[in-house]
Specification:
The chain is mostly helical. The protein is 58% helix and 10% strand. It folds into 2 domains: 244 residues, Alpha-lytic protease prodomain-like (Up-down Bundle); 68 residues, 2-Layer Sandwich (Alpha-Beta Plaits). 43% of the residues are buried.
């Protein structure tokens, strides 16, 4: 068989992962802002004796690492999108980066809690006015960063002008980008980092105001502990979301039943086996085994799967059963 002939049935497994994502540019800008604010908060927190402010600065420093992981993951996924070592492209680099960032957050939160406990046992003098001023500036920076990274932490990287090649037997998602969950765990991790930063800034401001006006000095380190607990809780949620992708969990039962119903409504067909799992933000691969007494072209069965399911790659196995 000639190479030109078989090429008709061959295709790549890039699925748009070679394109620059909007989250990549936004993350770089936030990294620069976060770095500047991190130095300011840690320095002033040490000078003016505020554990809540120092913890906020250290926490922001951890986000520098987390955001760095996010930025590196975008670049790595894009540059290696065509690497044949990745069976379905580099989409899962996104989830791996999100998982790693969440683990970084947990370790930093534990450190924050430890330092806060030490400060409860050994309190120090706090220069409230200066510390409050820096904390407010930090909160403003965090708010701007949250707006830049995009409100709800979901990445709509399939912009209206972006095109995912429709390869042999596969679907383009361009016109249905909002019809299925399209969570960019990498960008969501970055958003979680700045969201927790904003929280610790709020807690630091509250603690400093309480300590200054009500003379409750212990509120400063206590808020550091509260912030650590909340950060850990959010991190666990992010880990749970990324594990679903990394461990190849099946698509939702509702979507699975919908696809089975569509396939089984075609020419007296029965689905004997079905596997659909995530291979990137909002995109899925499927392996389907069908039993029918009226076998048809595999492409016809693939084309039955709605575009809004996010299935961009399908392998269909057909078993002929005359007595079905």
């Amino acid at each position: 068989m000639h190479t030109e002939t078989i090429a008709k049935w061959q295709h790549t497994h890039i699925f748009g992962q070679d394109q620059i994502k909007s989250g990549e540019k936004r993350t770089l800008f936030v990294i620069i802002m976060t770095g500047i604010m991190m130095v300011g908060e840690i320095t002033t927190g040490i000078i003016y004796g505020s554990m809540a402010l120092t913890a906020d600065g250290i926490h922001m420093g951890s986000h520098m690492l987390g955001l760095g992981i996010t930025f590196f993951a975008y670049i790595y996924a894009r540059r290696h999108a065509g690497d044949l070592r990745f069976s379905f492209g580099t989409g899962k680099v996104n989830a791996l980066a999100g998982y790693t960032s969440a683990m970084v957050l947990i370790f930093i939160a534990l450190f924050m809690a430890y330092e806060s406990i030490v400060r409860i046992i050994n309190p120090v003098e706090i220069y409230y006015n200066q510390a409050i001023t820096v904390a407010v500036i930090g909160l403003i920076v965090n708010g701007i960063s949250m707006v830049i990274l995009g409100g709800n932490g979901h990445a709509h990287d399939h912009d209206h002008g972006e095109h995912i090649p429709q390869e042999h037997g596969e679907h383009s998602l361009v016109s249905h980008a909002h019809a299925h969950p399209n969570v960019d765990h990498n960008l969501k991790a970055a958003y979680t980092h700045v969201l927790t930063d904003a929280l610790t800034s709020i807690l630091a401001i509250f603690a400093l105001l309480t300590a200054k006006f009500l003379h409750l000095v212990w509120m400063d380190p206590v808020m550091g502990i509260v912030g650590a607990i909340v950060v850990i809780r959010w991190s666990v949620g992010l880990i749970q979301g990324t594990i679903v992708v990394l461990l190849d969990h099946q698509i939702s039962v509702k979507m699975r039943n919908r696809i089975i119903g569509i396939l089984e409504s075609y020419k007296d067909t029965k689905v004997s086996d079905l596997h659909i799992w995530s291979i990137g933000p909002g995109i899925y691969s499927s392996e389907i085994s069908l039993v029918t007494k009226y076998p048809d072209s595999p492409d016809n069965y693939k084309n039955l799967i709605p575009l809004d399911t996010g299935v961009v790659h399908s392998t269909v196995e057909i078993h002929c059963c005359p007595d079905q």
